[in-house]
Amino acid sequence: MQISVTARHMEITDAIRDYATDKVAEELNEFSRIESAHMILDHEKFRHQAELVIQAKNHVRVDAHAESEDMYVSIDQAIEKAEKQLRRLRDKIQDHKSREKLAHVDMRMSSVDEEPAAGDA
Question: What does the alpha-carbon distance between residue 21 and residue 30 come to, in Å, rounded to a whole number?
């Protein structure tokens, strides 16, 4: 996974750059299909903004944006939002059986269970 950190309207320190890259690599390592992650940091007066853009295989793109009074908190929140979106997408892909088919099978199974009881009476 390729991770890049960019800053707007501010000089980025090594501590913030290292924190962002380590946090992204640590939190998103369970998603093996991620190709690149781009963290964009912005500072305006008292607002610290962090935006995370993730590119994954099969044209999957996830954008997460967070804003707070502390840059480290903004980075954490943006990563958390992106992780939640990726988890939802992964679950949607893995849950390929439709609920209607499962409900139909359950109804058929319950009707089979009822027939022997009706024949005994």
Answer: 15
